[in-house]
Write a structure and sequence with these properties.
By secondary structure, the chain is an all-alpha fold. It is built from 15 helices and two strands. Helix 11 runs parallel beside helix 13. It is globular and about 60 Å long.
């Protein structure tokens, strides 16, 4: 059996609730630029609104991690789901930049609670022997949400209009909250009487927590976090935001494939769907493989090589058929690395600070995702995107240096499943 029954009882409601919570945010990414007149905003602020939630999460992930280390998992996760529903509903009730910005900030807070809490619960119910496959299955639910949500939101917007569409998205997220209310278990392990958090009190990130974490820094965690930052920088940041522009730079507004001409916007959307679909498969496979061989670092190295090869393909191969190949290689890399790096950091995290450690990993990823588009479009003003993609390949190759000397199974901790 891939996972135990107790793990499955966690994964099903947790993955369902998390995936359905993405509907409002994914819809905004899919349709916001086309709704600027209706919402009373300018095209220039679309990027700010779409990126605001990530900026909030840079400090918010650490705050969420500290809260999860001091309190039960279930109440905070449910709070995150509820805040996400409120933020989605707010998009249908307000107009103008500042009101929409408030909704995006609220989503950033919600996702910090959902994301950090979800991975913390995975750590609670897994051991080093099966953490890869559990993380991979949870990553699969995430990628499913990313694949289906923008299609749902975009279709509903075309048929019913923006307001009704986001209200239905809030209803879909509400179903996820209902599933979690009914079926999501509390996973926080019992604390010993001598634990400083045994009282279960709530609290914010304290300077002493951060200073103590820095003093006891595990350089393997630091290396994994830096690689994670680079992976999200090149994938969620650069590739996701530039693929349509890349197609236009190379082939114009339409791309001829056989006897058919396809608009670059449509082809860009298909390539992003391919990205998500490949990630659905890559995450669980990478997790299972890293569990089977008893070492996550070889999977990390292969993932970095695949990603570098994908960006080199986009940079140098001139045929239209090479583009799906390059995107597929990058997506295999991203899916494998997201799973293996998360499981690796979970293996190494101190039990009483595992949520804060996962919050730090999420923060590294959000920094990379936020900086990627800024880097790409900053260089695209003066350079062809092929050179930007070549720089991404180089960054992933340099990431291999951080894996030198790393390897071997982490000593087994007491499993919580």
């Amino acid at each position: 059996m891939i996972v135990s029954r107790s793990q499955l009882r966690l994964l099903l409601p947790l993955g369902t609730a998390m995936a359905l919570s993405l509907t409002g945010d994914s819809t905004m990414y899919a349709v916001l630029a086309s709704q600027i007149d209706f919402l009373g905003i300018s095209l220039g602020v679309v990027g700010v609104l779409l990126g605001a939630n990530r900026m909030v999460r840079i400090p918010g992930n650490l705050v969420a991690g500290s809260l999860y280390d001091r309190a039960g998992r279930r109440p905070l996760f449910l709070t995150g789901l509820a805040l996400g529903i409120v933020s989605t509903l707010s998009y249908s009730l307000v107009r103008g930049f500042w009101s929409l910005l408030a909704g995006r900030v609220l989503w950033g807070i919600a996702w910090a609670l959902i994301n950090v809490g979800g991975y913390t619960m995975i750590l609670d119910r897994s051991s080093i022997a099966d953490r890869g496959r559990m993380t991979g299955l949870y990553q699969m639910a995430f990628m499913l949400g990313l694949t289906i949500s923008p299609i749902l939101g975009g279709t509903l917007t075309d048929i019913l209009g923006f307001q009704r569409a986001v209200r239905i998205c809030a209803l879909v997220s509400g179903f996820g909250l209902l599933v979690a209310l009914v079926a999501l278990p509390e996973t926080r392990p019992e604390r010993g009487a001598d634990s400083p958090d045994s009282a279960g009190r709530m609290g914010w990130v304290k300077p002493a927590d951060l200073v103590g974490m820095l003093r006891r820094v595990d350089w393997r965690i630091l290396a994994a976090s830096i690689i994670y930052l680079v992976v999200l920088f090149v994938n969620s940041g650069v590739l996701m935001s530039t693929i349509s522009l890349y197609l236009e730079q190379r082939w114009g507004t339409t791309v001829t494939m056989g006897a058919r001409a396809i608009g670059v916007a449509s082809l860009g959307g298909l390539l992003l769907a391919l990205r998500s679909a490949v990630g659905i498969v890559a995450g669980p496979v990478a997790g299972l493989l890293s569990d089977r061989i008893g070492d996550r670092w070889p999977v990390v190295r292969v993932g970095l090589l695949l990603g570098s090869a994908g960006f080199v393909t986009l940079a140098f191969l001139a045929s239209v058929g090479a583009v799906p190949l390059g995107v597929a290689l990058i997506s295999l890399s991203a899916g494998a690395l997201a799973t293996s790096l998360t499981a690796l950091v979970g293996d190494l995290a101190e039990r009483r600070r595992q949520s804060l450690t996962m919050g730090g990993l999420a923060t590294a990823g959000d920094i990379g995702s936020a900086l990627g588009p800024i880097f790409a479009y900053g260089l695209a003003v003066a350079l062809d995107l092929r050179w930007v993609y070549l720089a991404c390949a180089l960054a992933l190759s340099v990431g291999l240096l951080a894996t030198l000397g790393q390897g071997g199974r982490v000593p087994q901790k007491n499993p919580q499943n």
